[in-house]
Every structure is written in C-alpha cells, then in structure tokens.
UniProtKB/TrEMBL annotation:
Keywords: Cytoplasm, Methyltransferase, rRNA processing, S-adenosyl-L-methionine, Transferase. HAMAP family: 23SrRNA_methyltr_M. This is Ribosomal RNA large subunit methyltransferase M. GO terms for molecular function: methyltransferase activity. S-adenosyl-L-methionine binds at residues 196, 229-232, 248, 268, 284. Monomer. It comes from Luteimonas soli. The active site is at 313 (proton acceptor). It holds the Pfam family RlmM_FDX. Catalyzes the 2'-O-methylation at nucleotide C2498 in 23S rRNA. Transmembrane segments: none annotated. One of its GO terms (biological process) is methylation. InterPro entries: RlmM_FDX, RlmM_THUMP-like, RNA_MeTrfase_FtsJ_dom, rRNA_MeTrfase_M, SAM-dependent_MTases_sf. It is found in: Cytoplasm.
Amino acid sequence: MTGLLCYCRAGFEPELAAELTARAAEAGFAGYARTERSSGFVVFACDEANALSRALSWRGLVFARQKLRVIAELRGLDPKDRIGPMLAALGVVNDAGVAGRDPPCGAYGSLFVEHPDSDAGKPLAGLARAFGNALRPALRKTGLLTKHDDPSLPRLHVCFVDGDHAFVAIADPADSAPWPLGIPRLRLHPDAPSRSALKLDEALLTLLDDGERARLLRNGMHAADLGAAPGGWTWVLTRHGLRVSAIDNGPLRQHVLDTGLVEHLRADGFHWQPPRALDWMVCDMVEQPRRVAERMATWLREGWCRQAIFNLKLPMKKRWDETRLCLDLVAEQAGRPLAIRARQLYHDREEITVFAAAAA
C-alpha cells in the first residue's frame, strides 16, 4: 500500500482522520482514512503518497503528532524472521531470492522502531526496542543505514501495531517530528507552579522553529498571561527573560512573583487590555473555544500583541469541525494576514494549542 501514517493521541483518531480527509481533498488528492478508535494512529491510503506528503506539511496538521510516508504494510510476520520481509520491502535481495534493487549506500540517516502511544501499543515497547537493536546492524550491512545518525538524510520508521503487524515508513527530517512517537520528552521542573508549564514549553518547542525561538523570545520583551494563576505559563515566560503582566483574580505562587519580572494584576482576562502593545500574549483559560477565539482575534486585530499562544478547549463531539471553525474565526476577525499554527500537544488533553502572529 501507499499513503501516510500519522500518530495521534489515543481517542482522537476520528478527528485526525477527518482532518487528513479534508486537507487531502482541498489539495486535490483522492484517498481514504483507515483507523480504529483508541489505536493511536491513522493510515490515509492514497496512490499519490509522495505528492500528498509534500502537500500536507507536518507543521500544518493539528491532530498529527507525526507524519510518515508508508513504504509497506506487513501482516502475518513470522516472529522467527521479521527482518527478512522488511529488507525485502526496502528492495534488498534476501537469501530466498526476493527480487529487488541494490540500495544506495547510506539511504537513511537514522532508524526509529516504534509503537502507537495507546493502551494496545504500549505492551509492544519491549519488542520495538529489541527489534531496533537487531535491525540496525542488518540495515548497515546492506548499506541502507549510515553508521552514525545523519539528520540530513531521510529517516526510516518501523511501527509495530501488533507482534505480527508492522508498517515500514519514511520521514523527511525537515517535515516531521524529530522525536520517537512524535513526542518531545519534557520533564517537569521542580520549581514549575503547575503541570500546565509543560504545555507552554512544548508549544514553544513544537510550534516555533529554532530561528523563531531565538528571534521572538528575548530578554526584556513584554508579555501578558491571561488567566495566569497559579503561574505556570508566566513562570515559563520569565525563564526566557520576558517581563510578564499576569492577569488573574486568583493567587500566583510566591516564587513566581519573586523573580522580579512579574506584575500580578487582579482582573478578568476576558476584559483586561494592555496600556501599550506587547510582544506576547498567552492564554490558557477554561472557557468556550469560540469565546476564546473571538477574544484572541480582538487582541491581534487591535495590535495589543505581536504574537500569541492560546489553548482552545474542545467539545466532546465534532471536535474537528469546532477546530476549523475557531481557527477560521481567528483568521477572519483578526482583520490582518496571520501566520496560524495549531497542534494537539502531548501535554494537552481535550484541547489544542494555537500560535498566531502577524504574517511577515
């Protein structure tokens, strides 16, 4: 088969399937999504997988943690020889005389052997680890894998969805998540006021590239955190050297205030507005997503901030429809061209995180 393999949060397969179907149709590609509830992945079958992969950038997808191009789907794998069929799928002539091509030396710069991040997939972690240790030397012997990781070359992925069922796929390093399973491994700092700090840390890592982080997060910049208590997102911003107006009627952790970079204003985040334009506004308020989207659009339209990161809490049903509606609402009501990126982060739950900024 050919198509795309995308990982997602378990339980959000219908949303990812709907997103892939809609975006493929908009780009002019025919295909269909295949998945099972709580599996943690979606396959979008398409005869023009290469072109579709180029058309659907990883950064442009909301519900996909990872985007891969499928080489082969292998079912009924023999536990005594899983490597042989995978080498054959990659075009290597094996001992049984399977026809194929002679692979170019160093065709892949690295190998990830994975499993879906789901209840059914997690028991496969041991198999994935052991199989990776066996497959790497076999690939290097054929010349298909470089001796040392090379991020400039395509990355090879093997995803086990059962002991005898696996996908072999390719990732473009410039158009995919660089982390196994598409999950950045972040640790909660002992000084973080709440676990929500991990959301903003992941958002800055995932929604901005290296150049944007260096340019947009500089000492002395000014930000507002709407709905700041107990101070998780404010604390993250201060660690980047930003001065923060923390807007919330609730209390902030004292060590956040002790940074000397925070002004705590007891006000309603939905009504407060800054006396002057700020570099950043962040918002993680629990409220209806359309109301949040409208307020975010107002901030961007009025020029109260140059860029924003905010969360949209999704309803239990029609979550893809609500996502599109809210993102379109922000783009339309902002009244100016925007760069908008959204992602359901690993540290999100029933929500998505959005980055929006005036287009360069």
